[in-house]
Amino acid sequence: MARKMLIDGELEKRNADDNHYDFDLFVIGAGSGGVRASRFSAQSGAKVGICELPFHPISSEVNGGVGGTCVIRGCVPKKILVYGATYGSELEDARNYGWELNDRVDFNWKKLLHKKTEEIVRLNGIYKRMLASAGVKLFEGEGRVVGPNEVELIQLDGTKISYSAKHILIATGSRAQRPDIPGQELGITSDEALSLEELPKRAVILGAGYIAVEFASIWRGMGATVDLFFRRELPLRGFDDEMRAAVARNMEGRGINMHAQTTLTELVKTEDGIKVRTDHGEEIMADVVLFATGRVPNTKRLNLESLGVDLDKSGAVVVDDYSQTKLPSIWAIGDVTNRKNLTPVALMEGTCFAKSVFGGQPTKPDYGHIPCAVFCIPPLSVVGVSEEIAINEANGDILVFTSTFNPMKSTISGRQEKTIMKLIVEAETDKVIGASMCGADAPEIMQGIAVALKCGATKAQFDSTVGIHPSAAEEFVTMRSVSRRVAGKKSKI
Ligand code: NDP
């Protein structure tokens, strides 16, 4: 039905009837997905408007900013802090390489915070200029949908103005959620964590997803005492179990206090900081408590349900393979659809939207072989399936190749931290269907491996690829002996 509409309606040239709309496309939300979709649609000749709240470089009260979560309060500032935190261990490791660091080494949090904010302001400006140069009209304010072809914009002075559009694209992303425990208002989310006035000396983190393990590494790397509380046996549910264990081992090795199968029950304000109570009866004092317990789609104030657009039980906009909702003029991309919540995926969905609706080429996003990385220190990066998923879903045997080794740099620095790599291979076809690595530069290496997997590379092709020596990456092409052969659970008996 959606596809039929695309072919019948969108792929033909816009006819005179379209001229009565203010815009061909109005986008609500100028994050990664919204900016991509609006620019590419405008480049295909569409008249495009986009709305977003203004960006406040210091306050975390305002959730807006052209560039969205990734640029303003997500991936980019987080990665800057990860770089900052990594210098701590690099300086320690430098001693055995002959660097004399006799004088006290100080870390100046405020300086890094200032540099980070400068960079975010710069990127915010670049994003605005990209919109302008593509001919996209930017409106500052909050948008809501008041009709199948009508958006209401609540401007900064509180006045309302309506625009009509042939298509409306929802790209409002997601926001952090807090657990419902007494004293939860004393805790913060990643929004505030990226702009804290003071670096905490004692940090408590609840959760064990991307944000929890990344902030644990950041704060520990900057010298804080960090206690990480999570409800499973290992952090990072959904990733390969062996890699989760490696991350936990590394975090512990770097001095993070790991509290598995434990959750927080109450926060109490005291003169000495925040008293944190756990379900194991422990009490621990903290300067900062970070809730990294997931994110929810930003759909509350959009008025979508009253127009007949379906939301799922998490509040995400329900869309078809082309990102179209039940209402043909309304579309949605990115985290607000809760498909695969990663910036590059929102970019892909934005590109496909623009191609389908304004570019004359109906295109579905391809969710196969999406690589991802967790920027804990050292990082974890994966593409394809984990060993557990491969075994659960395979009809035939699965071959698992692993390599655990001391990275060359550690032989001199003396750091006790192994790098671990894994390839998952379908025995019958010899196809590599999963790769993972926990160790220095894992995300940089995995991007190339993702290309190989996307091309359907076999283990024999990995083996016949010449390595780059000396590097950790070459291990991926020298894993000769199979570590284990496991029968897939769907194998016929
Ligand atoms: P995640 O969904 O990754 O993890 C949430 C964590 O919180 C899980 O460990 C979960 O435990 C735990 N949790 C949820 N509710 C509770 C609760 N009530 N009590 C205790 N623990 C709880 O969310 P994040 O907040 O880490 O990240 C949000 C999104 O942002 C992710 O979808 C991710 O895609 C994206 N992101 C990506 C990054 C990257 O690409 N590097 C970096 C940062 C964020 P359990 O596993 O037991 O359910």
Automatic annotation (TrEMBL):
Which residues form each disulfide bond in the chain? C70-C75
Record-stated family:
Belongs to the class-I pyridine nucleotide-disulfide oxidoreductase family.
Q: Which UniProt keywords apply?
A: Disulfide bond, FAD, Flavoprotein, NAD, NADP, Nucleotide-binding, Oxidoreductase, Redox-active center
Q: What are the catalytic residues?
A: H469 (proton acceptor)
Q: Provide the protein name.
A: Glutathione reductase
Catalyzed reactions: 2 glutathione + NADP(+) = glutathione disulfide + NADPH + H(+)
> Which residues does the record give as NAD(+) binding sites?
G207, A208, G209, Y210, I211, A212, V213, E214, G294
Instruction: State its role.
Output: Catalyzes the reduction of glutathione disulfide (GSSG) to reduced glutathione (GSH).
GO molecular function (one): glutathione-disulfide reductase (NADPH) activity
Q: Which residues bind FAD?
A: K79, G143, T172, G173, S174, D335
Assembly and interactions? Homodimer.
Listed under GO biological process in this entry are: cell redox homeostasis; cellular response to oxidative stress; glutathione metabolic process
Native source organism of the sequence: Picrorhiza kurrooa
Nucleus as UniProt keyword: no
| FAD/NAD(P)-binding domain mapped to chain residues | 23-350
Cofactor info, note text: Binds 1 FAD per subunit.
Q: Where is the Pyridine nucleotide-disulphide oxidoreductase dimerisation domain?
A: 370-479
Q: Which GO terms describe its cellular component?
A: cytosol; mitochondrion
Transcription regulation among keywords: no
Domain of life according to the entry: Eukaryota
Cofactor(s) the record lists? FAD
Q: Which InterPro entries match?
A: FAD/NAD-bd_sf (IPR036188), FAD/NAD-binding_dom (IPR023753), FAD/NAD-linked_Rdtase_dimer_sf (IPR016156), GSHR (IPR006324), GSHR/TRXR-like (IPR046952), Pyr_nuc-diS_OxRdtase (IPR001100), Pyr_nucl-diS_OxRdtase_dimer (IPR004099), Pyr_OxRdtase_I_AS (IPR012999)
Reported EC number(s) for this entry are 1.8.1.7
